[in-house]
């Protein structure tokens, strides 16, 4: 199979959300001696782009996004050893610490954003749910994060997004990073009011916004 | 002896359900991050006070405070070991407010619906929860709710088809009560998992669920588009509309849902025109919304 043909198959496997197929194609690329980085960037990654756009347009939904990113991750796992051998690295756009704020156990939206950021080249540290301000601060210090993502699904836990920002300020860390917030009740006005740098409505938008934040 | 809830619905009557629970309990002092289920055992008088407020406002169906009552979901608050007790007790508290069905005089009949919400876990292959494990969780909850004396089981805010199926199957394993099921169509007219109103309705019809509908979701106006789709896919089902009281916004650090009780009452009339026979309100509502709906529907 010519490279272009194989790359096209890879893109399709990611769009269709087929982890087994993606793994198989990644192995095929290895056997054919294809540059693993090219396989990711020209083969699998364009599939994530298509799925991300479809999600933003409301044509695709959470399961599509999750299965596609699973396919992408499976492919990367197969290709990674060969990349290490060739001393290649996936380009890292920045380090993101993300979590759902204290008192809130909603996981899905936050995980989706984390997954999409990782699929798009960010180093993501997902702290999980019900994360205290101090846990955010500790993680930011530990990994030297460029961006902090704060999710809150409840109108009652939104105030804890602000608590994290205040704690970051007290720790003297606020000026060295950007803060993005999300969650059903959040909006750009709320972001502004609590001193966050940005808001994103969904996982696809979050990728674009975070890219903008690290470039700024 | 009061009429069975399905007989009431079969007679063509419209029944008014209740409004929000979580936000109302928080207004009464439930700390942020503590689930309402915690108050079932700790502050039962507050739970009953809220049920009573809805009944006084006109609710004919009150939902138990067990939306997060599966063992999986209670685990986050360390309440999973008490799951059975919490669900049974929640049903008893609501039952106490609604009255004893066997001695009921027929005056102001109020039904108790055993509320079941999602487990909070993603199901296989997207997440760790297997279908069988989900069925077991729902069966356990339904059994405890039935032991506490509910009239029916009300599954709500479903977004995934597999979880909804598992919930229905679990309820049937756990008890013999009628089961209702509503979905949250909050993402471009579908559920967050991509389920359309027609797909949801068709599946529930196939499972012989008598009452189906939309709850929570995004704007309550969207239910006006959803109900006809469900009706077309499920011509004989009883339709339920229990949307949020608008879309939440932060205004001066206070959460405001932008639909007034008057607006919700106007929408309720339109839901009924479209065939809804159970109408209530979800997030952001209070007994004032139910009172306005009750007044509007009684005037006809």
What is the CATH-assigned architecture of the largest domain in chain A?
Answer: 3-Layer(aba) Sandwich
Total number of domains of chain A:
2
Distance between the termini of chain A: 42 Å
| Most extensive chain interface and residues per partner | A-B, 30 and 24 residues
How many helices of chain A? The count is: 9
Mean pLDDT of chain A: 93
Query: What pattern of helices and strands is seen along the backbone of chain B?
Result: HEHHHEHHEHEHEHEHEEEHEH
Runs of chain B in which pLDDT lies below 50 for 5 or more consecutive residues are none
Instruction: List SSEs of chain A in N-to-C order.
Output: HHHHEHEHEHEHEH
The CATH homologous superfamily name of the largest domain in chain A equals: Cobalamin-binding domain
Query: Rg of chain B to the nearest angstrom?
Result: 17 Å
| CATH homology superfamily name of chain B | Homocysteine-binding-like domain
Q: What fraction, in percent, of the residue positions of chain B are helical?
A: 40-55%
What shape does the CA trace of chain B take? Answer: globular
The count of domains of chain B is 1
Largest sheet of chain B: 8 strands, parallel
Give the spatial strand order of the biggest sheet of chain B. Answer: 1-10-7-6-5-4-3-2
CATH topology of the largest domain in chain A: Rossmann fold
Uncertain segments of chain A are none
- CATH top level class name of chain B: Alpha Beta
**E-strand count of chain A:** 5
């Amino acid at each position: 199979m010519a490279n272009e043909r194989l790359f096209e198959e890879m893109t399709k496997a990611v769009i269709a959300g087929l982890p087994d197929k993606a793994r198989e194609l990644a192995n095929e690329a290895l056997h054919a001696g294809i540059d693993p980085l090219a396989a990711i960037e020209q083969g699998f990654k364009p599939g994530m782009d298509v799925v991300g756009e479809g999600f933003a347009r409301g044509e695709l939904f959470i399961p599509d996004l999750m299965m596609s990113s699973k396919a992408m991750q499976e492919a990367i796992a197969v290709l990674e050893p060969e990349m290490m051998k060739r001393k290649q690295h996936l380009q890292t756009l920045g380090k993101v610490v993300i979590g759902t704020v204290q008192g809130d156990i909603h996981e899905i939206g936050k995980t989706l954003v984390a997954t999409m950021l990782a699929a798009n080249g960010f180093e993501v540290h997902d702290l999980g749910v019900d994360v205290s301000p101090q846990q955010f601060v500790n993680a930011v210090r530990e990994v030297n994060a460029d961006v902090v993502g704060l999710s809150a699904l409840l109108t009652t836990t939104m105030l804890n997004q602000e608590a994290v920002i205040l704690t970051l300020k007290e720790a003297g860390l606020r000026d060295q990073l950007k803060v993005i917030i999300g969650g059903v009740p959040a909006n750009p006005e709320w972001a502004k009011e609590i001193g966050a740098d940005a808001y994103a409505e969904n996982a696809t938008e979050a990728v674009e916004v975070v890219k903008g934040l690290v470039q700024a | 002896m009061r009429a069975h809830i399905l007989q009431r619905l079969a007679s063509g009557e419209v029944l008014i359900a209740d409004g929000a629970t979580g936000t109302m309990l928080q207004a009464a002092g439930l700390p942020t991050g503590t689930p309402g289920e915690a108050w079932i055992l700790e502050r039962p008088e507050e739970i009953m006070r809220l049920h009573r407020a809805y009944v006084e406002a006109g609710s004919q169906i009150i939902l138990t405070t067990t939306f997060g009552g599966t063992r999986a979901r209670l685990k986050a608050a360390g309440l999973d070991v008490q799951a059975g007790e919490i669900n049974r007790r929640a049903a008893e508290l609501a039952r106490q407010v609604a009255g004893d069905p066997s001695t009921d005089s027929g005056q102001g009949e109020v039904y108790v619906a055993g509320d079941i919400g999602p487990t909070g876990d993603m199901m296989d292959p997207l997440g760790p929860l297997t279908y069988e494990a989900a069925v077991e969780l729902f069966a356990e909850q339904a059994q405890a709710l039935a032991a506490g004396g509910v009239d029916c089981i009300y599954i709500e805010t479903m977004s995934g088809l597999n979880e909804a199926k598992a919930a229905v199957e679990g309820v049937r394993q756990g008890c013999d009560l009628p089961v209702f099921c509503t979905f949250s169509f909050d993402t471009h007219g579908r559920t967050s998992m991509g389920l359309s109103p027609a797909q949801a309705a068709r599946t529930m019809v196939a499972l012989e669920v008598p009452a189906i509908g939309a709850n929570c979701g995004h704007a309550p106006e969207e239910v006006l588009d959803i109900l006809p789709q469900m009706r077309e896919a499920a011509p004989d089902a009883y339709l339920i509309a229990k949307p949020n009281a608008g879309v939440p916004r932060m205004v001066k650090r206070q959460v405001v849902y932008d639909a007034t009780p008057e607006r919700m009452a106007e929408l309720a009339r339109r839901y009924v025109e479209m065939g809804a026979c159970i109408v209530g309100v979800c997030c952001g509502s209070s007994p004032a919304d139910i009172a306005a709906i009750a007044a509007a529907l009684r005037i006809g």
